[in-house]
Amino acid sequence: MDRIRDAGITVTELGRRVRVYNSDMNKQLAAYIVPMEVTELRGDAAAKAVGAKIQVGRLLAEDGLYLRHNPGVREIGINDRGDVILRLDADAAEETTVGPILSSYNTTQSDLTSRMVARIDKKTHDRDVKEARAWLEAMNVLTNGKTLRTRFFSAGVACEHRGNIAQLYKTVQVNFFQINDPLSLELASALEERFRLLDRPVPMVRTISVVGIPSNERAYKEFVAQLKSKKQNPMSLGLPSRLRDSQFFDGASKSIVPSCFTFASKLADIGDSIYVITINTDYHGEIKARGVHSGVGAVMSMAEVLSAHAASTILSSEGTASLLVGASGSGKSTGACFWAERNHPERRNELRRRYAIEKKDEKAAEELMAGLGVVSQDDWVQIVPSGEGQWDVWPAERHFYLRSRDLLSRDLVLAENEPIIENSTADYGASGEREALGRATHQYPHERLFYDPDWDIFHSDREVHRISAVFLLENDADLDFAIRHVSRKDALEFILRGRTPDGGHQPFYTDYTDVSGLLISQSIVGDRLLEAYKAARKGDVAALMNGDEALGAFVLDRLQAQIDIWELFLADVPNFVIN
After folding, report:
1. Which three-class secondary structure string do you get for 6-72?
2. pLDDT digits over 104-113, tens only?
3. Whole-angstrom Cα distance, residue 255 to residue 300?
4. Which distant-in-sequence residues (6+ apart) come within 8 Å of 251 by Cβ?
5. Can you give the pLDDT at residue 483?
């Protein structure tokens, strides 16, 4: 600091100072400066710094740089000098999942796994389930714990999650509906009636999550030694004698990598339960998407119900729902919440003005506003035929699981509530601004927040609503319109292509489901999917899976079921594309 002063340079010119204090906040342990130069790092330059360790954490890159704090480091705030103040919490230093801010936690994964395995053989799938349970039992032996099990509803479908990560146990309960939820019980009863016509029970969706399986043979030997020290025989628990004999071993990488395992069963062959197994991923999005929504989607297909990557919002004076369908990042949540923000009266006033013009009655418009500008669901819905060309939207999630950076009224949500926050990181130059350096700004692309509609920041409900219109959200410079009413055929092609904001493609605008995940993994997307689907309809089912006939038959079965229902739905409801 003496040399800096002698040179006539201030700390603010260099960057931003960060001070680290002990647990009692009565002793400074360290101080360092985040240099201004990091605000200029982008692309490859930022990527080169990924994994680099500094005093309080390690660097991550998403275009610009972010900092993931070490366990036990808590952000306190800014002092009167403009320094970022951190506290090293000795009691939490061993808790690797605890995040740096209130109600936050970190995960080892922050996106869906790239390895998705669909078993064709039922016996192989049964062995997957058996071994997953064996791993959980082995983890319990080492931790003196027990498998965490919770049951819940999603759109009336009974679900179960088993695992060994406390945070997932908590977030699953937060994200979905409790087993005594009145609306869920009502939906479950309606669903049972549909399945009664099929002369079968409603399948249950069961997810097993195992985190901590050793990644290589050396680590597995150490794991086995620990079990034996507890007087437990790994083989008697059901574990393999060698890691490479594990059901979950990846032959390509010669290790156990984050993965998702499912059973590629045709709809007619689904039994009383649908099992999804996730391995070595603690990312809630994996459980929500691949574990719950994919399985529930298969159940719903059997009952001629659509599952869609969509938000629903009430904008019609008739109290009906508009569906905003699109890929992640397309603006579903923003669009659904735009008119619903309570602390932005100018937007709702504009909605009121429009309805006053339509009704030619200010008082009538005011009365309508109680049920307008309401967000119902933000990410995933079930679309259910209710007779005579009418379709309803059923809620799939209790809390909304949102990207923090895109959430409208985020500051108000944080100021008035304590939402669970996943993967909060500090800015390390990504914003390009000095004032953000060293602080948790909620701008990290993989930070997510659980929002409870009962907090009333937005006008919202979680009710069943009649659907009045469908809006497909595109971001395509080649399209020569901003909004267009399209035919059923054109709408279905947009949906099958599923263009993403970055120019890629996800069938049905999603990578959540097992079918979409498999198609994406095989690069059967966009125009190539349309061509492969036509070939499969003519008998060449292998075209859907790059030559794998068995998987191709599975994909066609699931694909055709969804397409048939989409065609009926799109014929009954007006379809629009917003570009």
Report:
1. HCCCCHHHHEEEEEEECCCCCCEEEEEEEEHHHHHCCHHHHHCCCCCEECCEEEEEECEEEEEECCC
2. 999 999 999 9
3. 35
4. none
5. 95
Q: Is 389 exposed, middle or buried (0-12, 13-18, 19+ CB in 10 A)?
A: exposed
Q: Which two structure tokens, joined as six digits, stand for 543?
A: 């075209």
Q: pLDDT per residue over 546-562, tens digit each?
A: 999 999 999 999 999 99
C-alpha pair distances (Å), 537 with each of 196, 523, 528: 30, 19, 14
What is the C-alpha to C-alpha distance for residues 550 and 537, in angstroms, rounded to an integer?
A: 15
**Cβ neighbours of 502 (radius 10 Å):** 9
Q: Say yes or no to pLDDT of 468 above 70.
A: yes
For the chain, the residue count is 579
Q: What is the residue-wise DSSP string for 326-372? A: --TTSSHHHHHHTTTBTT-HHHHHHHHHHHHHHHT-HHHHHHHGGGS
Please give the mean pLDDT across all residues of the chain.
94
Q: Where are the domains of the chain?
A: 2-100+418-451, 115-303, 307-398+455-578
Joined together, the tokens standing for residue 323 give 């569906």
Average pLDDT for 279-291:
97
- Give 320's contacts (C-beta < 8 A, 6+ positions apart): 314, 465, 466, 467, 468
SS3 category, 367: helix
